[in-house]
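Page 47, continued from p. 46.
Same chain as before, 233 aa.
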Amino acid sequence: MTTKTAAPAHTYRDLNRLMSLMTGDEKHGPAATSTLDALWVLYDQVLRVTPDTVKAPDRDRFLLSKGHGPMAYYAVLAAHGFLDEELLPGFGGYESPLGHHPDRMLVPGAEIGSGSLGHGLPLAVGSVLGLRAQGLTRPRVWVLIGDAELDEGSNHEAIAYAGPAGLEQLHTLVIDNASATFGWPGGIASRFEAAGWSAETVDGYDHEALYAAYTAPHPGQPRAVVARVSPKN
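Result:
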């Protein structure tokens, strides 16, 4: 397992329809839609994982820290065959595996249970360290966080550790919808760069720019991609 060999079950044009199938009570719809393009490019062109290789030791890992708005995540997973499209209408239901926060025991391809802010990036750091301890240096670990999560001190500790530790396998995707309480002079990317990361800010709706940022070389450094989207979206 190194690259994807099968085309996705659906195309990008199907995502709005897949999203519309999830009619359960959802308080974080904008949090989901803000991630849709960034998630699509990641799963469609970058991640080395398929429905058949979700347990393979050398797969790439994706951790959705911004798990309080999982609708886009579920739509992208369905589009790529990780879960059955027929599950989407039950989203948020008592008997549905698709909860308001993803559950790694119920959702195929989900690496962590998430939704509470501030946990995903520290877990991603630990995942890279665990892979290193097993001698697995090829798998990449991606984590998607929201800009407001950077108000949490746990993320700053992870950022401060990962840069000097040279965790090259670690990739952080920050969805910036201007919802953070505090912010940073010079922008979010400057916070990562100050801690020794490779970082870049791009338009969160521009698929070509996202792909280029995702795949840019960053030898010896963790990588952060800040995807700017509509404020509060």
